[in-house]
Amino acid sequence: MKQFWKSMLRSPSGVIGLIILVLAISVAVFGPMLFPNSPWRMVQRPFLPPFTLSTVPLGTDALGRDVFAGMIFGARVSLLVGLVSTLVALVVGVPIGAMAGYFGGKTDDALMRFTEFFQTIPSFALAIVLVAILQPSIYSIVASIAVVSWPPVARLVRGEVLSLRTREYVQAAVVTGQSNTWIILREILPNALSPVIVLASLMVATAILLESSLAFLGLGDPNLISWGYMVGAGRTVIRQAWWITVFPGVAILISVLGLNLIGEGLNDALNPRLSREGR
Amino acid sequence: MGGVINAVIQPEPPGLMLAQIQNGPTQMVSGNIFEGLLRYSPKLEPLPELAESWSASEDAKTYTFKLRKGVTWHDGKPFTSADVLFSIEMLKQTHARARNNLAQVDKVEAPDDYTVVFTLKQPFGPFLGIFEVGSMPMVPKHLYEGTDWKTNAYNNAPIGTGPFMFKEWQKGSFIRLVKNPNYYEKGKPYIDEIYWQIIPDAAARSVAYETGKVDVLPGGSVENFDVPRLSKLKDTCVTGAGWEFFSPLAWLWLNNRQGPLADKRVRQAIMYAIDRDFAKDVIWNGLGKVATGPSASTIKYYTSDVPKYPYDPAKAKALLKEAGYKGEKIRLLPLAYGETWQRWGEAVKQNLQDVGMNIETIATDVAGGNQKIGDWDYDIAFTYLYQYGDPALGVGRNYVSSAIAKGQVFNNVEGYSNPEIDKLFADGAVATPDSKRKEIYEKAQKILVEDVPVAWMLELQFPTIMRCKVKNLITTGIGVNDGFKDAWLDK
């Protein structure tokens, strides 16, 4: 573990990514305490440009709502959706991939055809359809993002398991008569984890983008403010008021960039060959 | 004189046969092709169109219309009273509102080619208000009699008596109308051609105007926040006129049947809680007018002498407390008609939350929203409806208990039921003379505003934006839907 942090902190992209993520998370956790007012409240005259009033530093939107407050509350929704939907996708994808890779044969065929069924449908289109059918709400959004993002996890885990199950220590475990579950959980998965962790960090970024795109199209939870919603609502007035779209857009950009950098850092840190050679 | 006008039509109409399709865009394009017996001034007085003159009998039960002579259909056949009789028969089957409007008509006769006589079952005050082209378009008997009306080939290339003739329709691109050279008003129309441009994206419609591709943006074809910007462009004229006949009024359906909203005090609290001036100034960019009650101020027998509901959150809170409201969840359905309505939903939600109501917004599309409202599966829902100039035609339908019918969207979906109101609207429709009707409808307005069956928001205004060189586009209370027969281009 110590070794991991050491190599993680040695990679500059990992450090920058970590800083961004920690900042974003602290904004999401503590921000709303500093801004007890609802971000939906009309506080000032509409279309107030940024940096004119210290109470609304980033200006106001078409209804006179504080853009800064929206950014802070939006961080909470974006990060929450990103993390939770990735977790759900992992919970679905990892077991399916592990079983397919470990048991092989007909199980593998069945599970992989099922996975491919989801992979052949363009993921964003499927997410739109699911949210539209289920009615937009935070739950349906998390569920639909999870549904479209688990197949790559399953494929990745299957590949790792396929290569690991022929290793000698796994075969030794089989010979000693340990149960399949035990072998998968204790012998194989821990060793297949590093690529999954890298993938997960990128999935959080993708999930944030997906949620933003859904909200941009008006399929966000109507009761929660999110960055994508702010961009979508501000898009039509972009010629009169650039700041309504630009600030949340930049927020999306930075947080997705941060997560990608973390992914890169993790990759460096978790891949022993790369980290020891110092590239 | 002469020239071409490019106008936006939004959305693309499903068809142009006005007697069978009454969507907004159909009315707007086909108002040039078809005509009614009458048109209406901005004050809603009847003006001659296909009928040259009209008179009512002493007992107000017989109306005689003298038709204009020398009128021909676009294919050259003469227009006569036989066409009027046929049109009425057809409309009774194809046009729900016309059927309703004609319910008091006992019989229609044509003593000669240019006279039509309507005999009513009883005097019907708003009778002279039902002859506008969208409500009662005249269709050619010789092309439709004995055919299947729904599949008649002329539905795709309609033949009317109007100032412009249908020429071509490139789906998804434009509808082209050309001047009727044999129009009965000599010299008119002044314009040679009209192109109705079909542009699906709101921002692209604004750009099309700015770049000069179109000259006329009829009401509602661009987003409200673009209106001030476009209005300031060079050589641009804006008018809010031409909607007097329709008088669109926006309100919130309040489900009177169940939950906290069954209590009158909660409904009154909603009126006090919502900042309607904010909605007008910010969301509608100052367009329109705060509504005082069930009638828009532009229609007959309107009175402002009703209980008032200014923006007063403190009073709203007190009323909620008095009614014993304890934070029960209330569902709000915004109207899925685009940005403006979405923002309005958010503002109203915030207003209601500020006085302590627990509001949950339900996101739907237009069809889903209509279904929920029709099934009475809502607590608060946005809507706007046309009023057609007379309380008997456009107001009563939303408040009388006989108009409670599950599955339909534009009747009394709030479930308000008050025998006194039922009687007032029943009496008002058939009372004579006018002063009696006025008295009845003023009383009805007072009772309704006190009871708050729905929460009236704004009298909407849909400004028409056009180049200043387009003159006389809007001359009547029917506005752009009345056709371009008086319009001309300043060179």
Descriptive keywords:
heterodimer, A: mainly alpha, MetI-like fold, 11 helices, 0% strand, B: 491 residues, alpha+beta, 4-stranded mixed beta sheet, 27% helix
Description:
The complex is a heterodimer of chains A (279) and B (491). Chain A has helices at residues 2-10, 12-34, 67-103, 105-120, 123-134, 138-164, 168-175, 180-216, 227-235, 243-270, 272-277. Chain A is mainly alpha-helical and 279 residues long. In chain A, helix 1 (2-10) crosses helix 10 (243-270) and helix 8 (180-216) packs parallel to helix 9. The longest helix of chain A has 37 residues, at 67-103. Chain B is 27% helix and 20% strand. Chain B is built from 14 helices and 21 strands. Chain B has helices at 24-30, 81-94, 96-101, 141-144, 202-210, 226-231, 264-273, 276-283, 313-322, 339-354, 366-374, 391-394, 419-430, 434-451; strands spanning 4-8, 38-40, 46-48, 51-56, 62-67, 105-112, 115-120, 164-170, 174-179, 193-197, 216-217, 236-239, 249-254, 289-290, 329-333, 358-361, 380-385, 454-459, 464-467, 470-471, 488-489. In chain B, helix 7 runs antiparallel to helix 9 (313-322) and helix 13 (419-430) packs antiparallel against helix 14. Chain B is globular and about 70 Å long. The model of chain B has no long low-confidence stretch (mean pLDDT 92).
Gist?
The complex is a heterodimer of chains A (279) and B (491). With 279 residues, chain A is an all-alpha fold.
CATH class of chain A: Mainly Alpha
Any idea of the CATH topology of chain A? Answer: MetI-like fold
Number of domains of chain A: 1
Biggest pleated-sheet summary of chain A: none
- Please report the distance between the alpha carbons of the first and last residues of chain A: 21 Å
Strand fraction of chain A equals under 5%
